[in-house]
Specification:
The chain has helices spanning 25-34, 56-68, 92-111, 130-150, 171-181, 192-198, 202-209, 236-245, 260-264, 266-277, and strands spanning 8-9, 15-16, 39-44, 72-78, 116-119, 154-157, 186-191, 213-218, 251-254, 281-282. The protein is α/β, with parallel strands linked by helices. The protein has one domain (8-282): Alpha-Beta Barrel (TIM Barrel), CATH 3.20.20.150. The strands form two sheets. An eight-stranded parallel sheet has the order 2-3-4-5-6-7-8-9. Helix 3 (92-111) packs parallel to helix 4 (130-150) and helix 4 (130-150) packs across helix 5 (171-181). Residues 35-277 form the Xylose isomerase-like TIM barrel domain. Keywords: Endonuclease, Hydrolase, Nuclease.
Length: 288
């Protein structure tokens, strides 16, 4: 007798402000609550909450908006793939300033009551051995993770595509970097596009990281891109089934911003994602 495939829970699905950068944060919170989520991944960008301008008044405003809509922050994800933020930079001044900014990001995440601070490896100069950049990245990640741990936060580490970084692209790269950092409070992100571009499989992430696989970005691609489910050709339903069969209990979030039209109509983009994933999740359980 065959059994139906296991499914993840809708309770694992959280919201985010990806694609909403041209909308006020209060509108983001209203839309996300309307989708039935109670937690969000907060992308740290202007005008919502960026590292360069997030003073006490702005942080207090974001906290109030979250409270008004019954939302909590699962992880704080500062924008970090573009300069001037780069924790592995070969320029000492930029690198130190970036580390300082991420210490500040940890302070903000703790103030918001987040569980995780979201990190990426940074990138080195293309005309130097990649090993030098990996050393700088590992040292910086260790410093940031230690600061976050003192605040009661865990960190998340996500690999990047080659065009974004020359440090860690695959699950194996990420495992080596994680071991080099040596922080027991650092967990791992599986991004379906990054995984596909690296030629990896869900089983490799599960086997290499076990319970430290704590967050999944469910994004479509060709294989690259940050597309809405159905705008690419990745087997997202299959990935979710594999995660469910492996007993994955972490968060799921969407990250649609590869197509400029998403930012013009983010509600439609998110509605399409929510409709596409719904058949693959067990219904949300509401606490009594």
């Amino acid at each position: 007798m065959t059994h139906p495939p296991r499914r993840l829970s809708a309770n694992q699905l959280i919201g985010a402000n990806f694609s909403f950068q041209h909308y006020p944060f209060r509108e983001v919170a209203r839309v996300m609550r309307g989708f039935g989520v109670t937690e969000i991944e907060l992308w740290g960008i202007a005008p919502h909450l960026d590292l360069h301008h997030a003073g006490p008044a702005r942080i207090a405003e974001v906290k109030q908006v979250l409270a008004d809509h019954g939302l909590t922050v699962r992880c704080f994800t500062p924008e970090q793939v573009l300069y001037p933020i780069n924790i592995a930079s070969g320029d000492d001044a930029y690198r130190q300033a970036s580390i300082d900014l991420f210490r500040r990001a940890g302070n903000i995440a703790a103030e918001l009551g987040a569980r995780h601070l979201f990190l990426t490896p940074g990138r080195g100069f293309e005309n130097e051995p990649a090993e030098r950049a990996r050393d700088r990245s590992a040292e910086a990640l260790g410093l940031i993770a230690a600061h976050a741990a003192n605040l009661g936060l865990r960190c998340l580490l996500e690999p990047l595509q080659r065009r974004e970084s020359n440090i860690a692209h695959s699950a194996a790269d990420l495992r080596r970097l994680l071991d080099r950092v040596g922080a027991k409070t650092m967990d791992v992100v599986l991004d379906t596009v990054a995984m596909a571009c690296a030629g990896d499989r869900v089983a490799e992430y599960v086997g290499l990281f076990g319970d430290r696989l704590a967050h999944v970005h469910v994004v479509d691609g060709t294989p690259a891109g940050h597309l809405v489910w159905g705008d690419g050709n990745l087997p997202l339903a299959g990935y979710l089934t594999e995660l469910a069969e492996a007993g994955y209990r972490g968060a799921l979030s969407f990250e649609p911003f590869g197509d400029g039209s998403y930012a013009l109509d983010p509600v439609t983009a998110w509605s399409r994602n929510m409709q596409a994933i719904a058949p693959h999740l067990e219904p949300r359980k509401v606490s009594a």
